[in-house]
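If your schedule permits, I should be very grateful for your opinion on a structural question. What I wish to show you is a protein chain and, alongside it, a tokenised description of its three-dimensional fold. Would you kindly read the sequence against the tokens and tell me how you understand this chain to fold? Here, with my thanks, is the record as I have it:

===
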Amino acid sequence: MTDQTQLPDSQRRILDFITRYVDDNDVPPTIREIQKGAGISSTSMVSYHLKALERAQILNRYERRSRGVVITAPNRINPRDMVSIPIVGRIVASLPAPTPDADALADAENTLQIARSMVGHAEDLYALEVKGSSMIDALINDGDIVVMSKGAEVRNGDLAAVFLLDKNESTLKRVYFEGKRLKLKPENPTMKPFYVDARSAQIQGKVLCVIRRA
């Protein structure tokens, strides 16, 4: 994998813009948005640089999707700018997803090293492996890792892990607050949103970023 400190300035700007955009919007930018946000001369030059970054195993592209750019490696500039996050389990139907209590953090067998810039100042960080295909249009695929913040505020339209008390299971969905109920929306055209009583659901954490596993 290419050392990102040795990348051309234009490619560094592209990576930095994609990271900031995903932090702010929870989805990757389009090619046109990358061009404007990173100050690249044309969309064709953006495509050229993205292909180079893909060859360097720094990002993946889904060319049939308008927002199909996923960073797979953190911007490794300085070890002090990295944060170690415990991978405490999987989020999978019929089983509750772990939340980062002291025991779970202590027992975590794997950790994830990512750039602090990818999660901002968020605290209470942990990571879960995703099982299933309900969020593929949000570029979250089976086997990917989602970085969560237990304490972050979840607003309408945010991606979050929700524990359903009556079913004793967790789900990863886009959350909308509608009075006394929650609307949980999959990001898969074959699946429909569903509603739950707000009293029977517990939000376990907000998705801050996604790490794709090759």
In short: The mean pLDDT is 79. Helices lie at 9-25, 31-38, 43-55, 102-107.
